[in-house]
């Protein structure tokens, strides 16, 4: 399910990838998305720190 947004500064923490993208209104959105199969976690955050924290503390519901 690729998103049609241009992410930059993509990093990876565990299975979770974090990318920064503009939301079209000149504001930045920081998205954390888990790449593990069948997990499906993804969320937008207002700050990079929040996204990284979510990535670090994320636990896949399915192992
Ligand atoms: Zn996960």
Automatic annotation (TrEMBL):
Tree of life domain: Bacteria
Pfam (any one): SpdB
Protein name in UniProt: Mobile element transfer protein
């Amino acid at each position: 399910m690729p998103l049609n947004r241009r992410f930059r500064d993509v990093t990876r923490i565990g299975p979770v990838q974090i990318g920064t993208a503009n939301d079209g209104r000149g504001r930045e959105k920081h998205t954390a998305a888990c790449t593990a199969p069948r997990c499906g976690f993804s969320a937008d955050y207002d700050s990079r720190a929040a996204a990284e924290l979510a990535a670090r503390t994320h636990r896949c519901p399915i192992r």
